Fold this protein.
Amino acid sequence: MIRTASLAQKGHDLLERKRQILMMELVKHIDDAKDLQREMASVFADAYKALERANISMGIDVVEDIAMAVPEEEDFIIRLKSIMGVEIPEIDPVDASLKPSYSFYGTSGSLDIAYSAFRRVLELISRLAAVETSVYRLAVQIKKTHKRVNALEKVAIPFYKSSIAYIENVLEEGEREDIVRMKKAKENLEKKK
């Protein structure tokens, strides 16, 4: 029972350290997410302004047709990194360089600027998705770890401590009774002599 209580206490200490490390990682990722969201708002505003200029100079229908010719991005490389057992995604940066898939004939520089701005948006979105996924996974794991710490702290450890105290009291009471019995037996032997 004492060994089990000791193991429960060690488990509690380990889980508490895990929770603290996960909290530090969570705070770091939340700060990164805030920075990325601020940057994203600025880049989105610039990209939509560039798109408006392209729509004005070339016409909405022409820009829309050209946009349909742009292939979907499929070159996302995602690796998972483990932090205290939590799988955190890491995405390789998306190449934001200009690789237009449309002809320069019949287009204007405003379309190239809009294309470049939206490539930058794509890069930021991929980074933000990785950071927000990390925040979510860390928060879920922190919640689970917190429940386990509380279960050990509020239920298991007090149960073991009270059980150990009860057993010690019972044993001490038995020892006292044995001492009294031995004294009585000694007194009875002395009386018989």
